[in-house]
Design goal:
This protein is α/β, with parallel strands linked by helices. The chain is 34% helix and 18% strand. It is globular.
């Protein structure tokens, strides 16, 4: 992989957080006319997993070898992030979408090698909802397209385990857990012996759990304010950020959209992920469904399943290639 170039940059938010960005591109394949891609992570995860795959080619490598310049972002309070000011806001959905994302996008546009000075937002799980939120609050956003991977918008369908964890905003905000990565590492041997413990997050029949010690590097501690935000969202069904109903406001967004869904996603059920279709203001909208009754896909399988490179990453690259 000598043709891959990977470097790290920093971006500073307006309220004093220093965040980590990683850029990946291929010296053999890069098409300088395409807009750069910015991958936004989801709940309790950083961007590590996008550059790693247990048995195959990672998402960032697949996209880079398709000609794209690929950036991944770690949000505030995640790996590599540092608060430079005591008054810096803690992590929250609003801070992620309206402070971290604008800072990252500005840095990508400033530092990119590409001639197209817009970005394609690739939102993974919660990251897709952050992209939606950013767009409705930023009418002139320098965004060329959106890919939402297992991303909720309206919670008309909620898995019982998710409802249990986020059933009360007050209780959810009181959850303060540190060292989740270490706890996950300690629990990994049991999960490998009893793979059903990972449901509904992973279908272990097509994910190589022997590399779990590497995959765990993507795990981040839950943030109390984010937990409370999620609980309010799930209870109300619609996401409201700083007084704006994101679903209702998406009618003003006219961009190409690719929605990627797993057929048995227990974290973000298909109904929650596809709710964006009726809300979206643009007409260039496609859905990539992955999995069937025999080989079903769970939430994290979109990134780490054996078939992810061919069934998820390659179709994403093809969708992008047809537009840029």
């Amino acid at each position: 992989m000598a043709h891959l170039r990977i470097d790290q940059l920093r971006t500073r938010t307006h309220d004093g957080w220093l965040l980590e960005l990683t850029r990946t591109h291929s010296t053999l394949h890069r098409n300088s006319s395409q807009p750069p891609l910015l991958i936004v992570p989801g709940y309790g995860m950083n961007g590590f997993i996008f550059g790693f795959h247990p048995r195959g080619t990672s998402m960032t490598r697949t996209l880079a070898e398709s000609g794209h310049e690929v950036w991944t972002l770690n949000l505030r309070a995640q790996r590599g992030a540092r608060a430079l000011d005591r008054r810096a806001e803690p992590a929250s959905l609003a801070a992620y979408a309206l402070s971290d994302l604008p800072a990252a996008i500005a840095t990508v546009i400033d530092a990119t090698h590409q001639s197209d000075r817009r970005v394609v937002l690739v939102g993974c799980s919660l990251g897709g909802a952050l992209a939606y939120t950013y767009l409705v609050h930023t009418p002139s956003a320098p965004v060329a397209a959106v890919i939402a991977m297992g991303s909720p918008l309206r919670w008309d369908d909620v898995h019982p385990a998710v409802r249990f964890v986020f059933g009360s905003p007050r209780l959810a905000s009181m959850v303060r857990v540190r060292g989740v990565e270490s706890m996950a590492r300690a629990a990994l041997p049991l999960a490998q012996l009893v793979p059903k413990l990972l449901l509904p997050y992973v279908n272990a029949t097509h994910v190589d759990l022997s590399t779990g010690t590497h995959m765990i590097r993507t795990v981040e501690d839950p943030q109390p304010a984010v937990n409370a935000d999620l609980a309010r969202w799930i209870t109300a069904r619609d996401l409201v950020v700083r007084g704006v109903n994101v679903r209702a406001a998406l009618k003003r967004v006219n961009l190409p959209l690719l929605v990627v869904v797993s057929n048995r996603d227990g974290i973000v059920p298909e109904r929650a992920a596809l709710s964006v279709l009726k809300a979206w203001g643009g007409t260039d909208v496609e859905v990539l469904r992955v999995g069937d009754p025999r080989t079903w896909w769970a939430h994290a399988d979109l990134f780490v399943a054996d078939g992810a490179p061919s069934q998820v990453f390659a179709p994403m690259a093809a969708w992008l290639g047809a537009r840029f």
